[in-house]
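User: For my dataset I need records formatted as: sequence, then structure tokens, nothing else. Please produce one.
Assistant:
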Amino acid sequence: MSLLSRDKKFGQSIGLIDLGSGSVSLVVLNADNRITFSAGKTFPARASDNLVTFLTEASGAIKTMLAEMPASLNPKPSRYSIILPAPLFMAVSKTLSQTADQTFTFNQAKLQDIARQSATEYLEKEELLFSALAPDKNVLIENKVMSLEINDYPVSAPTGQKIKSFRAKQYLSLGSQKVLSQLAEAIKVSTQVNQIDFQTFPLVAYQALDHLLQANPDDYLILDAGGELTDLIAVHNRHFSSHFSFPYGLNFLLKKIAASANTSLVEAGATLRLYYEGKLEPTARDRLTDLLIAERKVWLDYFLTALKKISEKTFIFPHIYLLGDDYANFFFREFLRDEAIQALVINRGALRLSTAESLLNLLPEELKMNASASSLLRLVVVFLSANPK
């Protein structure tokens, strides 16, 4: 069950966990979708360096957060939903279609059967997500039909009529059974709650941001570079179009800084924050500026490759929404100011960069709750507040 289609019959309270690369954030919502508890933890391990260590530290951080939940909290969550970051999942956007000379009956059951068969084939053909965890197996996380056209007209759902053609966009994601089991176990041993499900970042980010934007604009890109990878989500006519990721996010940049200065990732992070705040002494600032110029080119090469792949499927529209905190967005906002990106934008329109944080800051005061939670969880809370069922 998707956390963005929550049904109150699943309990009066839900715990939402946003697992990042080196961080984890929790919010607890009551039946009225009000935050009753929140917490956040950081840990040094990164999934791309050592998956086993990452899972151990992430599980420990989850247990610590849950242990901080007040005994007086009532009701406590009867269900938890974990939002997974890359690279803990694999996702794909597929097109399902059928065209016939003679009309055929097309209903919800037939669409579900086709989507289920597509998911089965996807799961069977993909190689093991983490070979280092063998013996393991891939398991399906999400199977969602994102959009549907019948006889070339967009519709919300099939109604059982006779048709000649349909075309649907499907989002599929899979994960490692061992990874999901270990994360779920961290919650079970801490709370005795067994109802735990998983979502993936691209689908949750798209659904939550789309709600907040309300079709203004209805074509845009979502970019999150605050972790191990950069995730890029293309949205066209308010429909999820495609998702790409590449192995260069903020944590990769920190590794480069640490290596160049022969220091730790923690110290590299502190140095980068001083740079961001304009407090780094001139010599160190000049050295870091030179490194950032070189790394900007590396990141842009990845980004432009992803954009060109997206442009094969749809137009590149000029609005990009950055997820994450201002610290991470500062650097990648600067990276995006490049003429090569502008050349790919439809009609050569001016590239416009916005942040999810700026959208959240425009909300009424009653919805500006819990600024300490991750931007993604705050987007989800806003969505659930407007869509309680």
